[in-house]
Structure formats: structure tokens, C-alpha cells
Design goal:
It is a single chain. By secondary structure, this protein is mostly helical. It folds into four domains: 215 residues, HUPs (Rossmann fold); 67 residues, no CATH class; 56 residues; 82 residues, Arc Repressor Mutant, subunit A. 48% of the residues lie in helices and 10% in strands. The protein has 23 helices and twelve strands. The strands form five sheets. Strands 1-2-3 form a three-stranded parallel sheet. α11 links the parallel β9 and β10. The mean pLDDT is 92.
Length: 528
């Protein structure tokens, strides 16, 4: 039997393609630092968001693939740029007036508006770690404040100082005329106010390791660039970090392509090879506009996890990372069912398992599938029952699959909860039943007659065959029109599950009752 290393070397899934680039970079040998370093960055001026999850999840998938290709140790740093000066007060925090008094200071020098940590930066860092820990990521948290103030960046900062003009000349063409006048890669921290200053640098003394800048009051101040007394402007900071840490791989959004190119130039100036990179496409909202943290459009990780399990979010992130995708509530049911489909297929795939998303979601150890019910099926069961009570759904599930219980299949029980919440918030408000046309009424009467002749314990395939036959016999050249009519008349929506499987789950007797209600001229409603 082919071993996993051989399968990994042949795997075409994008994380393995990326991992092979990293392996080629190190020539299949451990770097001098003794390990391969993967990195993700985080700006803690706000709370962690779905993009943070996506970047860590995707980087983790590449790291896992690399670990199947090589015995070289690999580490993942999640780096927080918490020494940045806060430029504006976020909308979603308490005590805004208090925070506004500290604008311009490093995030780790601003009091925590939530009152739980020693600073705003520490609070948001704790939220980041808690957020990542929820998903079980294996990572090492790193703080820019710690690296700058401990002196661990000192050697790299002095290297930037030695190449001050060259670094500055790389950045200047990307700036507007006004910013060029005052731009410096180094941003001193004002000893009086504690704010991060964007001020003109008048002198550079590489030998002494200092810069002289013009303070806001017009005084000339000389300050070391080391020991946390200066920080780098973010584009130079990113490149310096690659150099100082020896980063081998870092992905970023398509909007940062130019910044990656610029950072790579600076990294080479400092004497290091920039990391391998991967530019993923940005998410779009329901109207196909780019998602923006400041606008608040799109979908947060917390909102996704209200209606779907984390595995479905990981699946969404795995699929086509270089394609723009709508990230809104209506993508959740499909993402859940895509995950369930891949999980069900995994055991029978043998040599193709490493192509399956669930291998990457679960690091090669996906769980055993439970009762095979789709999320769409549970949604439609909730819809036709018009319930928000898990016990009602479990009553139907237990009859359909007698061995299934909430205790024995906890994942399915969680799906029931997700489906009920999704039904309550999105399906129920949009339900619109319609009466059948005369042609549809005749077809429904025929369907009811045929179903009365079917055994009460008939499976979904047999029922589906009867539904299919009725559509053909009543002149539906495109059977999609027949099924669409059933969805609109019986479920109050324009799409739905495989009808035969749904009727088997809901019950043949109950399904007939729905049809007969319509045939009697009564209107189905969201409360029927």
C-alpha cells in the first residue's frame, strides 16, 4: 500500500502545492535556525475577525501539508502588531472618550476600555488567543511590544538604520507628495506623551545607533532606535520582521500584493530572502462589494458559528482561496453540506484522501461520519414542522434512523441546533406559499394517489421514483419545474431538498397530509 509520504508528494491540493514550494526553498534541509517558520500577522486595533481566522486556518493547512512532506520541524508564529499607534477609536468598544485621550499611543500603552487587562492591546491580544484556541490551532503567540522592548529586534533595527536611505527610497515612490516630505522608516516614541510620532528625521547616525528628529514643539531630539524607543513604519516593519525572525512563509490578501513586493525589496536590502507567499482573494458581501471591517458588511466568525459548525467555516476557507467568494449568511447551509459530503466520501477514497478538504480541516484524522442527514434536510424539516424545538426534530429523526440519539450523535445534535436557529432567523421570515395551478393540482392528486399505495416504511429512493414518474406523466419536460412547484407549494420556498429523502424523513403519512391540505383548497402558511 502506498505510504502517506508518497501520497503527499503526489497530492495536488493547494496546501501541498504551497508546502512543496517551502520544501524547495530550504532544499529539503533544516534552515540554520533549526526549523521552518510560518507566520501570520494581526493588527489588534480591533477584535479578531473572519479574515484572521481564514489566514491562520489556511496557513495551518500549508504547515500540516509540509509536515507530511518533511521531517524538518515547523513552527507557526501569530504576530500581533500591538506597538502600533491607535489612529482612531473603534466603534464597538465602551469608554470611547477615555480611549480618545490616548490616540497615537501604542495599543499596549492605552488603558483597557473593557477594564479586564493592563492595556487595550493586551485585551485584544487575549481575545485573539481565545479566538484561535476555540478552533484548536497550534501556534505561538508573539507580541511586537515584547520583541521591541526586550531588545530582540535591536540587531534588525540597527541593520535597517545602516540601510536607512536605501529603505526610504524603496518606500517613497509609493507615497503622496505631502507624506514624502516627512517620511521616515523609524517612528520615535515621544518620551513626554508616549505617542508614536510621524515626524521628520534630521540626522541618522548608524554608528551610534540613533536618529535625530524634530519634535512637535520644534526641539531636536536624539534617540536610540533600539530598546523600544522607536518602532518601524508598518511596511518597513513587516520586512524587518521577516529578516529578524527568518520567516519562510506568509500569506496575505490580494490587496497587499504591492506591499509584499515592497517588503520583499526591503528584506533583500537587509540581506535576507523574503518568505514564500500566497495571495488569497478577498471576500465579498451579499451585493458583491469588498468586505470592510470599518463598514461592518459581510459576516463575522461569531455570526457564522451561530448557524454552522467551525468545520464548515474551515471548509469554506479551504475551497478556492484564490477566487473571490461571497461571504454572507446564505452561504452557510451549502458550506455545511459540502463539508458533510466530503466527510462521507473520505473513507472510500484511499489514495485520493489528501485531496479531500476534510483531511486538511482535521489534519489527516477526520471523525467518523454519523447519521447521514444533510443540513438542508434538517432546515426543511424545521420549516415544514414550523418549530424551534430540537425535540420535535429529533422525534422525526429517531423514527427515520432509530439508532440515532442526541447523546450518541452529538455532532448531529449540534446541527439540529444550528438548523433551528437558521430557520428562525432566515428561512421562516422569507417563506411564501402559493396555491397550485390546475395542472399542478392534477399532478399533486396523482402523486397523493400513488403515495397511498406505497408502504409506510418506503425509503427515499422509492418515493423519489414515484415523484419523478408523476412529473414525467404530467408533461413536465424539465423536471426541475415540477420539483420547484413542489417546493413552492409545500415548503413555501423556491428550492429545497431531494423530495423523496425528505418525505421519508418527515414521514409518508405526514407528507400526504401536506398534499391533501393543498388539494382541499387550504393554504399552507408558516404557521400550519
Amino acid at each position: 500500500m502506498t505510504n502517506e509520504r508518497d501520497l503527499a508528494e503526489a497530492a495536488r491540493a493547494w496546501p501541498f502545492e504551497e508546502a512543496r514550494r517551502v520544501l524547495k526553498r530550504i532544499d529539503a534541509k533544516a534552515p540554520d535556525k533549526g526549523y521552518v517558520l510560518f507566520e501570520t500577522g494581526y493588527g489588534p486595533s480591533g477584535l479578531p475577525h473572519i479574515g484572521t481566522f481564514g489566514e491562520v486556518a489556511r496557513t495551518t493547512m500549508v504547515r500540516q501539508a509540509f509536515q507530511r512532506l518533511s521531517d524538518v520541524p515547523a513552527r507557526l508564529f501569530c504576530f500581533s502588531d500591538d506597538m502600533d499607534g491607535l489612529r482612531k477609536v473603534p466603534d464597538n468598544i465602551p469608554n470611547k472618550a477615555m480611549v480618545a485621550e490616548h490616540l497615537g499611543k501604542p495599543l499596549t500603552q492605552i488603558p483597557d476600555p473593557f477594564g479586564t487587562h493592563e492595556s487595550f492591546g493586551h485585551h485584544n491580544n487575549a481575545r485573539l488567543r481565545g479566538f484561535l484556541d476555540t478552533f484548536g490551532f497550534e501556534y505561538e503567540f508573539q507580541s511586537a511590544t515584547d520583541w521591541y522592548t526586550s531588545g530582540r529586534f535591536d540587531g534588525a533595527l540597527l541593520q535597517v538604520l545602516r540601510h536607512y536611505d536605501a529603505v526610504k527610497n524603496v518606500v517613497l515612490p509609493t507615497l503622496g507628495p505631502e507624506r514624502r516630505e516627512t517620511y521616515s522608516p523609524f517612528l520615535p516614541l515621544c518620551p513626554k506623551t508616549g505617542r508614536v510620532l510621524q515626524v521628520p528625521v534630521l540626522e541618522v547616525n548608524a554608528e551610534a545607533g540613533t536618529i535625530v528628529y524634530e519634535d512637535e514643539d520644534g526641539r531636536q531630539v536624539e534617540v536610540p532606535v533600539t530598546g523600544g524607543q522607536c518602532k518601524l513604519q508598518w511596511k518597513a516593519d513587516w520586512a524587518m520582521r521577516w529578516y529578524a525572525l527568518g520567516v519562510d512563509y506568509e500569506m496575505s490578501g490580494k490587496d497587499l500584493i504591492d506591499s509584499v513586493k515592497l517588503g520583499s525589496q526591503i528584506c533583500r536590502l537587509l540581506g535576507a530572502r523574503p518568505p514564500e507567499g500566497f495571495n488569497y482573494e478577498l471576500f465579498l458581501d451579499e451585493e458583491a462589494r469588498k468586505i470592510s471591517k470599518s463598514k461592518g458588511n459581510g459576516l463575522s466568525a461569531e455570526e457564522w458559528l451561530t448557524y454552522g459548525p467551525p468545520e464548515s467555516l474551515s471548509h469554506f476557507m479551504f475551497q478556492k482561496p484564490r477566487a473571490a467568494k461571497r461571504l454572507y449568511f446564505d452561504v452557510i447551509p451549502r458550506a455545511v453540506d459540502d463539508y458533510l459530503s466530503h466527510l462521507a466520501a473520505y473513507d472510500g477514497q484511499d489514495d485520493k484522501r489528501l485531496e479531500n478538504p476534510v483531511w486538511h480541516i482535521h489534519n489527516g484524522q477526520p471523525p467518523v461520519p454519523g447519521t447521514k442527514l444533510s443540513f438542508a434536510m434538517l432546515l426543511n424539516l424545521a420549516s415544514v414542522c414550523n418549530t424551534e424545538d430540537p425535540a420535535v426534530l429529533w422525534g422525526f429523526i429517531s423514527r427515520y434512523a432509530p439508532d440515532a440519539t442526541p447523546q450518541g450523535d452529538p455532532f448531529l445534535d449540534r446541527l439540529v441546533g444550528f438548523a433551528l436557529r437558521y430557520y428562525r432567523d432566515f428561512v421562516k421570515p422569507a417563506k411564501r406559499y402559493r396555491a397550485p395551478s390546475e395542472t399542478e393540482r392534477k399532478a399533486l392528486a396523482d402523486l397523493a394517489a400513488r403515495l397511498r399505495e406505497v408502504s409506510a416504511d418506503a425509503d427515499g429512493e422509492l418515493i423519489q421514483g414515484e415523484v419523478y414518474a408523476v412529473g414525467k406523466d404530467h408533461g413536465y419536460e424539465n423536471l426541475r419545474d415540477w420539483f420547484k412547484a413542489l417546493y413552492e407549494i409545500l415548503l413555501g420556498q423556491d428550492q429545497g431538498p431531494r423530495i423523496g429523502s425528505f418525505m421519508a424523513l418527515y414521514g409518508l403519512k405526514e407528507s400526504l397530509a401536506l398534499i391533501e391540505t393543498v388539494l382541499q383548497g387550504e393554504s399552507l402558511t408558516a404557521s400550519s
